[in-house]
Design a protein that fits this description.
Blueprint lengths: L5 E5 L4 H17 L2 E8 L15 H8 L2 H9 L8 E7 L2 H12 L3 E5 L5 H7 L2 H8 L3 E5 L1
Parallel strand pairs: 1-2, 1-4, 2-3, 4-5
């Protein structure tokens, strides 16, 4: 494992994203790495939820949460002493995660899985699957 790993952890306030943060914290503490927490809101700041009907319900709910609370919840699972930075973006979650990882030179993305069943995954796809398909960086999916 590489020393001083730069680890990206997309968070949305769900229990699985908190588990991903905890897992990333363990890796960072062993490698002397750092963690970038990334919250992506699907809501455009100048539009209401009613105007954005194309957004899945789960993403709308996550977008309405307070990012500070999401970051605080994720940080609780990261060991003390691990450097953590929090970042917010607006847009399509998978695309923003991939762009952020490339822009910041992330060594690893640790992302939670929503646990879609086979039919849901086929019809809807998942953010974690889209990240894996479009990212050159190593991706670890936490259940």
């Amino acid at each position: 494992m590489k020393d001083n790993m730069k680890i990206l952890v997309p968070v949305d306030g769900s229990p699985v994203s908190c588990r991903a943060a905890a897992f990333a914290g363990e890796i960072a503490s062993v490698t002397g790495g750092t963690i970038d927490l990334l919250f992506v809101s699907s809501m455009k700041p100048d539009h209401s939820a009613a105007e954005q009907r194309f957004i899945p319900v789960e993403q709308l709910v996550a977008s309405m949460q307070d990012p500070k609370e999401i970051f605080d919840g994720a940080k609780k699972n990261i060991p003390a002493g691990v450097p953590v930075s929090a970042h917010e973006k607006n847009g399509i979650p998978a695309a923003e995660i991939v762009a952020f990882a490339k822009a910041t030179g992330s060594d690893l993305i640790v992302i939670g899985s929503k646990g879609l069943n086979a039919v849901e995954g086929f019809l809807l796809g998942s953010v974690s699957q889209k990240v894996v398909e479009n990212e050159d960086t190593s991706v670890l999916i936490v259940k």
